[in-house]
Amino acid sequence: MDMKRSKGISMALQAIIIILTLITGCASMSSDEKIKRSTAHYQLGISYLNDNNVQPAYVELQKALDLNPHDKEVLNALGVIHLLKFEDYPKAVEYFKRALNEDKNFSEASNNLGFAYEREERFQEAIESYKDALSNPFYKNAQKAFNNLGRAYYRIRKYDEAADAYKESIRRSSDFPLPYYGLALSYNALGRYDDAAAALKMAIGLDPDYKGDTEKFRKEIRERRLFAKGNEERDIDDLIEILNY
Question: 134 lies in which domain range?
Fold first, then answer.
């Protein structure tokens, strides 16, 4: 019995020594070394995420954050996982806000924050976040933020503003198909049915999934409708209606 107890104490001491060694190792790392290790974990996490290996991506990004809790890119990436993969919108909002606390001009995080607000149906806050993203003249993905802004305006039935935002997205990237779909819906809501049909035709023509094949689009969108709900279901019904113009 004493030997077993002695063995148990010995194993416990070994575990404590290992933990203390790890803690000491982390504490003894220089700031530059922590940043380098954090960057390595971040890059590995993004690689996993690009391959849709969500859990290992999440683990690597958390390791990166532990080493560098002020890295805006890591915070934004964790927000994206909570937004798109876990569908935990409040947590996504939290991470995007933390990223913006590190850099208020981080437009990608502002755009992502707007999308998280949309998922929570906080459309006015979404609009403000998209506008924040677009206030940065150096934002590379402005066409996406304008498309998102148009969708948020459309949700609150500001159809003229929605159409303007979609058209601005198209001006920034004329071969980007998504704003044409939104423009078709906006024109339809405004009673501009010919313009709606023309915009939808452009969307189907530019969309690499369809390359102008209207019948393929019609078939796939009807299949999507079987599983759609809420706003998506209404959008699909309207697009099917526009196809008949």
Answer: 34-140
Distance CA(44)–CA(58), nearest Å, equals 10
Q: Tell me what pLDDT residue 26 has.
A: 54
And the tokens for 79?
């927000």
| The two structure tokens encoding residue 195 | 């313009």
Last residue of a domain, one of 108, 140, 172: 140
Give the separation between CA 205 and CA 221, rounded to whole angstroms.
15
- Report if residue 111 sits inside a domain: yes
Q: Which amino acid, 95?
A: Y
pLDDT digits (tens, 9 = 90+) for 47-83: 999 999 999 999 999 999 999 999 999 999 999 999 9
- Residue carrying the six token digits 């304008």: 146
The model's pTM: 0.86
Q: How far is CA 202 from CA 69, 169, 178, 206, 224, in A?
A: 45, 14, 10, 6, 20
CA distance to 43, 91, 109, per residue, from 78 (Å)? 13, 9, 11
Distance of CA 238 to CAs 158, 196, 205, 235, 241, Å?
17, 10, 18, 5, 5
CA distances from 39 to 9, 28, 107 (A): 39, 18, 21
Closest listed residue to residue 71, CA positions, set 23, 48, 47, 37: 37
